[in-house]
């Protein structure tokens, strides 16, 4: 049996020891049939202030991720761009959900038992946890919410500092500058904040979360609404990127990273999102092939500006190392046995995102 420090660590970090939330995305569909994402639970901040509860010191924090997950990947991108890999370690889980406990049927993120088991994934180096769920239970006894990645983990207090990627990326951008290899890079600069905020709102709702709203809708109305908004937003971004190199001007910002993580998964993700629709809709006898056509109005590679832009961002030093297409494919095609019982991975478009692109026409 494993034993963990529990309530004392959670109490020290100021968290309630019982958190009740949705256990999986399937619980996050409202009576109207629309997908409604639950808010993240752990919302503390690491601070550059040495007297803070979570001071930005090297070696104290660890990022638990899945390479399949777009939200975790945006944190990985910030870690690389800011030159923080020496200060904050990373451990990736296995790409395919497994039972997290023998005593119930929850499926979730699992660490491999050894470093050889799954290229890219590693055992938990600090807590010997079998699952991400166990990490949450160390931080908060009886945690009943969704055990999601990313997790920004405090090795000293043995707790989750924050599990909301939009907040983690802001901390990585500003709070670690004393120890960052690239402190001068500001991905949320004051003069562009209004524009970044506006784009983020559109991109989060219609694109990042929009693909999930398409995928998890249980009724036609919410699906129609989500898919219309998704393609309107993609068209808007396509137009903007016909005039400038990056989404908020001619400078890379967090809005680009937030958009990129969905775009890079897009042509793979269309059918993966559909797999989840199929799982939700097993009782309505929906056929998986029909489901696969639900989100295919247009592929990424049919939007020339968005497609070249995705290659451009991918080719920024450090970014390609945050994209593990193998984990992305394995996760989406392997984590839903009711839809894809033999876990066969479709051949996929195998796009070369390192291929030349036309973005330098806007200057470098
Ligand atoms: N709001 C969170 C969302 C993270 C999230 O939804 N992660 C997914 C993976 S893409 C997850 O871990 N899901 C676990 C599950 O569905 O059980 C963030 O942006 O950090």
Automatic annotation (TrEMBL):
The keyword Glycoprotein does not apply. Pfam families: GST_C_2 (PF13410), GST_N_2 (PF13409). InterPro entries: Glutathione-S-Trfase_C-like, Glutathione-S-Trfase_C_sf, Glutathione_S-Trfase_N, GST_Omega-like_C, GST_Omega/GSH, Thioredoxin-like_sf. Keywords: Signal. It comes from the Eukaryota. Gene3D superfamilies: 1.20.1050.10, Glutaredoxin. Glutathione binds at residues 109, 146-149, 164-165. Residues 189-332 form the GST C-terminal domain. CDD domains: GST_C_Omega_like. The active site is at residues 69, 212. The record marks 289, 332 as: Lowers pKa of active site Cys. This is GST C-terminal domain-containing protein. It comes from Urochloa decumbens.
């Amino acid at each position: 049996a494993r034993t963990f420090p529990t309530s004392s660590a959670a109490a020290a970090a100021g968290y309630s020891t019982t958190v009740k939330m949705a256990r999986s995305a399937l619980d996050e569909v409202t009576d109207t049939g629309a997908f409604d994402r639950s808010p993240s639970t752990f919302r503390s901040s690491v601070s550059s202030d040495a007297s803070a509860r979570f001071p930005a010191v090297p070696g104290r924090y660890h990022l638990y991720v899945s390479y399949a997950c777009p939200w975790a990947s945006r944190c990985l991108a910030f870690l690389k761009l800011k030159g923080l890999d020496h200060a904050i370690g990373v451990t990736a889980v296995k790409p395919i959900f497994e039972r997290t406990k023998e005593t119930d049927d929850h499926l979730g993120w699992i660490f491999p038992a050894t470093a050889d088991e799954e290229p890219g994934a590693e055992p938990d180096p600090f807590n010997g946890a079998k699952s991400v769920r166990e990490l949450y239970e160390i931080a908060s006894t009886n945690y009943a919410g969704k055990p999601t990645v990313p997790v920004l983990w405090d090795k000293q207090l043995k707790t989750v500092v924050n599990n909301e990627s939009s907040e983690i990326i802001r901390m990585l951008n500003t709070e670690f500058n004393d120890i960052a290899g690239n402190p001068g890079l500001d991905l949320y600069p004051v003069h562009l904040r209004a524009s970044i905020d506006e784009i983020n709102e559109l991109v989060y709702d219609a694109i990042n979360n929009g693909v999930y709203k398409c995928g998890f809708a249980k009724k036609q109305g919410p699906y129609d609404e989500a898919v219309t908004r998704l393609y309107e937003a993609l068209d808007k971004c396509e137009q903007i990127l016909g005039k400038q190199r990056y989404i908020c001007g001619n400078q890379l910002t967090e809005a680009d990273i937030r958009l990129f993580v969905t775009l890079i998964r897009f042509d793979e993700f269309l059918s993966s999102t559909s797999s989840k629709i199929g799982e939700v809709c097993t009782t309505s006898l929906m056929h998986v092939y029909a489901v696969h056509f639900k989100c295919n109005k247009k592929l990424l590679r049919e939007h020339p500006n968005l497609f070249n832009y995705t290659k451009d961002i991918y080719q920024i030093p450090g970014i390609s190392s945050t994209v593990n297409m193998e984990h992305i494919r394995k996760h989406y095609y392997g984590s839903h046995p009711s839809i894809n019982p033999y876990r066969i991975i479709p051949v996929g478009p195998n796009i070369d995102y390192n291929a030349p692109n036309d973005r330098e026409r806007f200057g470098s």
